[in-house]
Amino acid sequence: MSSEYSFCSEGGFDELSSSSDSGFDVSFESPKHEVPTDTLFPPAKEEKRKKTRNTRCKSPTQVLRLKRNRRIKANDRERHRMHTLNDALERLRMALPTFPEDTKLTKIETLRFAHNYIWALSQTLGNSDGGEITVNVGNVTVSISENGNMITSSTGSCAVAAQKRLGPQHTVGFPYPPQERFVAPEWQEYDCYSDQSVSPPMQYQPCYDQRMYQVHRPQHQLPPPPPHHHMPHHNNMYQCL
DNA sequence: TAGGCCATCTGGTCCT
DNA sequence: AGGACCAGATGGCCTA
User: Fold this and answer.
1) Per-residue flag: A86 CB under 7 A of strand C
2) What domain range includes position A141?
3) What DSSP character marks residue A185?
4) Are A190 and A138 in contact (CB under 8 A)?
5) Would you tell me which of A42, A166, A182, A231 could form a disulfide with A148, CB atoms 3.0–4.6 Å apart?
């Protein structure tokens, strides 16, 4: 970081570095105590630095402390950022169909699955001829029509989700909210495309985990999938969307 | 023990 | 100057 090498800061003494020696070590005002300029300021930066305003010099100790404090703050920010991302990822997990006994999808699995799932749904909508379209995910059925969406399940876990009502149908927004998370008891009940599935326009569209469920389109035939190339296969892999 | 996954640290870049 | 974002490095944990 080039800024880390600034020996002087705007407005004088730096905030973060002002702790024990909150002031300013006068002894380091003398040029003879400064770290060689060549080391701290490459020629180009030195020239640029001359244009900047009047700044107060910092001792090497202060510079080090400043760097360390900035690093600590940056680490905190990064940690928080990653936690935020993980929270968002968790919400995404909860919005995807899953099995109760399933282990948690990994990060990459979640992202791939979500991508494929959304893509499949968009394909379903795109191929709509105006009538109601049904998407089966296991024993959960998502009916999409002009009057709204309805999610039904043959199991009691999901039942009929009615988030908003449009006409005679109970409708829910899609993707369904977390509390209406799909819960299917048996893997065998899931509809799969097997090798006839379609794949979204994504470079790494194949999913390598058996937990990647299929979205089945019973009313509209989807085009055959593009060939998979250069994708390693694991024993537990199977074709997904 | 190797490999996968993950959290965290780190330095670079870009933007405000 | 500082924050956001990113990608690489690293070490810990877990499982086959």
Assistant:
1) no
2) 60-160
3) S
4) yes
5) A166
